[in-house]
Task: structure prediction
Amino acid sequence: MVHKNLVSIIVTCHGKSEFIEQAIKSVFAQTYTNIEIILANDGDTSKKLLIKLKLIKKKYCTIPIKIIFTRKNHGVSHCRNTCIRAANGIYIFPLDGDDLIHENYILGCVKILDTNPNATIAYSLVLMFDTQKTWPKIRILAKDNENLIAAAYIPSAHMFRKSDWSRVGGYNEKLLNGEEDWDFNIKRILPNKKFVRINEYFMFYRQTNNSRQKEFDKSLCSKFTNDLIIMQNNIDIFCDNIEQYYHHQKVKTKIIRKIFALSYLYFKYAKNYFFIIKTLREYI
Result:
């Protein structure tokens, strides 16, 4: 296979000094070779990370590596957007600096996007791991995988066209605490577009005790704030899939989330009395 199209792999490094070289090693092992690596250091000034990034650039010099450093931590969305603007590839592949990918992941994604113009996202199944064990990350996808809930289950390490990123305005930089991937995926839901999954475990997600996702899961306030921002940005999709959204929520916060979501719908559709009554009767 001719490796024609350049892939820009965006590796976020903030707080990842312990694992960053493992992530780069998995990128270096890719069977698809037309790649560039952009190391995104979003305000991490630790000497350990800065030294490690310099060593990585020297050690893996056969691959074009660019380091983008910002003095302040602006969040994952801002970091990725900045790097994607600087990327030369027509395909983009974000990777967190503590995760790993299978050697055929990039190749598999490129094949999908090269041969399917209607594919907007290419991704794989996920294995979670820590220092002691590895286990599948259980994701129950709806039959139609271009919907609101399936968009939440696509791993952050997936491939998309830079043109699609530009079309939807990139990652939402208001989402500082999490769920930026869900919002970004929702914005790419279109009737003629597909989310195409590789049915192999090509992405390896590292589970750590102090991960950003774990901290986010503990904060009910952050979840509500993010949901409101995402609803505001994608209100039509939420209204079309409101039942699907409610059934997806965790039981312990289900009632609160219903009230929260319906409150927003009330203000959005205050003039449509019958819509509100119908919604309340069906879902509360």
